Amino acid sequence: MNMNNKVILVVLDGLNNQVARDCMGYLNGLLEQQRATFYTVQSELPSMSRPLYECILTGVRPVDSGIVSNQIVRRSHHESIFSLATSQGKTTAAAAYHWVSELYNRAPYEPIRDRFTHDTDLNIQHGCFYHWDNYPDEALFLDAEHLRQTHQPDFLLIHPMNIDDTGHKFGLDSRQYRNSARHADIIVSHYIDTWLQDGYQLIITSDHGMNNDLSHGGILPEERDVPFVVIGDAFSHQECRIKQTDICGNVCQLLGIQHEKDVTQGLLAV
Ligand SMILES: [Zn+2]
């Protein structure tokens, strides 16, 4: 298959693997009809947000990238999906937490300058960034869809925060945390058909999971295991073992751009 696809990467922050399996009815409906395939990915370490945004978007582990904690506020030192795509003539967009703007566009984030970004010289050319942990997922998806319809990006990152935020308030084993995952599933269900009709390949995953101490960061399976759901005809939908460090390279393959990142054997259709 000639890989020259458009890609939407949805990173549902802090979504535990088993909660995704149990609570996301729409995604499970696609799985039952063989329109989607669910894999489990083990997050790299530490199982923290900013280190794993960098891992997902550059393929570089935190211990190698230097983005070792949420407190490291600087631009990435590595090629990312955004930098590789824009340098090869693709259009990029993101509706994401402001740390993503700091990693790939400008650090530190200045909301008056950066919240709405439109600059084709930046790695993320079209951005809507937020800095409130309780910014509604519903609004974030509307932001993303506005960027998509206005700019037709080849690569769009969608990164809502409500599941993680709820986990920090109530913990993994709580009705509130599970219900936030159910709510995200409902929001996603309103967009998937349109995205597929417009020719996008879809990946839905998370950076890290959640524990019962209202946190994450360590090596517990509930903190590390996250879902990785693929939808679209560019995927093989066959069994394979995906590493979090492969995600960047897999997206570059889908986009049909040159890169030197790791990829997952067997994930994509040939
Ligand atoms: Zn968190």
Automatic annotation (TrEMBL):
Do you know which InterPro entries this protein is assigned to?
A: Alkaline_phosphatase_core_sf (IPR017850), Phosphodiest/P_Trfase (IPR002591)
Q: What Pfam families does this protein map onto? A: Phosphodiest
Superkingdom of this entry's organism? Answer: Bacteria
Q: By what name is this protein known?
A: Alkaline phosphatase family protein
Give the originating organism: Vibrio algivorus
